[in-house]
Amino acid sequence: MAKTGIVYLIGAGPGDPGLFTIRGLELLRRADVVVYDRLIAPELLREARADAVMVYVGKATSHHTLPQCEINSMLVEHARHGAMVARLKGGDPFVFGRGGEEGLALLAAHIPFEVVPGVTSAIAVPAYAGIPVTHRNIASSVTFVTGHENTLHTETGVDWCTLAAGKGTLVFLMGVTNLPTIVKELIENGRPPETPAAMIERGATSDQRVVVGTLADIHERARAAQVQPPAITIVGEVVSLAELLGGWSARRLRTLYRRAEENDG
Ligand code: SAH
Known about the structure:
alpha/beta, binds S-adenosyl-L-homocysteine
């Protein structure tokens, strides 16, 4: 029987391939099998060995992904056959990435694994729009919140009262569909409607779009702009810094765009 392999749960960052870690790249270049989600930069995938088995587990169009249990068993099977598996996940594997579930499944199957943290979209995507998630005298805390339907109203879900209180920055992931609920709950629980808010679609990619408004009108503005997932919603006074601090990103995004064109052509 083959010696058991190993699985690396690797954060691939939010889009810009330049945000991938050195450790992630070293492992990706050596892996026998690469299991990857949607939103992983094509430039990164080209770093895999020419003979690596490439397995895509997310469908971009329907937002349908392979059931998590099947992904878990696939990782286990490849490792049981002795493979070194690079499991590439968007952003950071442990920030709404189900990396914990994959780790637990590997543990249960006695497969060795390691985690390689990545640059999470929750921080990097606001940054590419010029928004620091904290800023002295403006916001001294930041909360990452899932806007996913299944967790919005469960017991372990979102505590709107606490979130709405104070001036801390709120970053919602997976919240495009539920934006009306998010806005309603925050306002009803006491966040002022004039609080600055922004939505960033496909942040840190050459397709990045930013919509800025207030809690009161962000839904209307996002609807007018037809904001689609993947997008992040950020609520708090820090959003007002976007205009001042966002100038640099246009240059970086143009570079990404040029590279994508070259690679396509
Ligand atoms: N583990 C990931 C998050 C996975 S949940 C991380 O750390 O970034 C998927 C959600 O992340 C999306 O619904 C969206 O809210 C957000 N997201 C990921 N990449 C994004 C991007 N490039 N631009 C905007 N939002 C992004």
